[in-house]
Amino acid sequence: MPKTSDASAAAVDTKPAIILHEVVKEFRIKHARSLKESFVSLFRRNGPATDDFRALDGVSFEVGRGESLAVLGRNGSGKSTTLKLISGVMLPDEGWVRTRGRVAGLLEVGAGFHPDLTGRDNIYLNAAILGMSKQETDDRFDEIVEFSGIEQKFLETEVKRYSSGMRSRLGFAVAVHTELDVLLVDEVLSVGDAAFRAKCNEKILELRDQGKTMFVVSHNIRTVKALCERGIVLERGKVVFDGPIDEAAKLVAPKRPRR
Ligand SMILES: Nc1ncnc2c1ncn2[C@@H]1O[C@H](COP(=O)(O)OP(=O)(O)OP(=O)(O)O)[C@@H](O)[C@H]1O
């Protein structure tokens, strides 16, 4: 029987928003040498002392459209590296990463800002980097400014004169107002003051409820439980758990000392 257009649309909808397949990421680590070791190696013509270190070691998972997933794990387990590979700022050494739709990262919010341009110009610049046309940014400009809480008079000031909190607020405001399908969140709730953090929380929940795909890296278990239904636990660059968020959270919870 020939497929109807509805059926094919439904088929398209079920494709994952993010796929990682057997991903390996290695970093070269330089070892510090004592002065004596450096001196000896100079005469022996040794190269610099380095080691290849696997930050991610065969990581595979898929995130469905509209799903919200948290990645948990100890410091150095590979969470931010995973996020950077998904956002495309890093490439894997082996395996592959695919994303579908527009991906907006709340990684280093405002990272694309140019210090010598005004707040206004930076909104357009940052939005363009995130894939927005001038018209789309015009339409959302007031909303972005209002959300950021930056006073009008500062819009014509160079961003290098902003406080770090003001820069983060503006960066966050632009990112969450772009036309996005997948939102990458890295400890975003450390942005700005308490009132702004509450506003960010609300906005992220709103985006999730609109059916955006969420990929969250955080050490804040309360936050991820409120935001995500599924959790992946990384340990030394490998996935050691993939399932309900409550179980994932239990695995990373600090052990209570025995009395
Ligand atoms: N650019 C880099 N060069 C060398 N090593 C790196 C680089 N980036 C990350 N690493 C190493 O890769 C490992 C994983 O780092 P990653 O930042 O992904 O960990 P994480 O789980 O996000 O940690 P945290 O919870 O502390 O943020 C760490 O051992 C880190 O030292």
UniProtKB/TrEMBL annotation:
Q: Where is the ABC transporter domain?
A: 37-259
UniProt keyword Zinc, yes or no: no
Q: Which UniProt keywords apply?
A: ATP-binding, Nucleotide-binding, Transport
Q: Which PROSITE patterns match?
A: ABC_TRANSPORTER_1, ABC_TRANSPORTER_2
InterPro entries in the cross-refs: AAA+_ATPase, ABC_transporter-like_ATP-bd, ABC_transporter-like_CS, ABC_transpr_TagH-like, Bact_Polysacc_Export_ATP-bd, P-loop_NTPase
> What Pfam families does the entry give?
ABC_tran
Highest taxon, organism lineage:
Bacteria
Keyword S-adenosyl-L-methionine assigned to the entry: answer is no
Q: Under what name is this protein listed? A: ABC transporter ATP-binding protein
- The record lists the organism as Leucobacter weissii
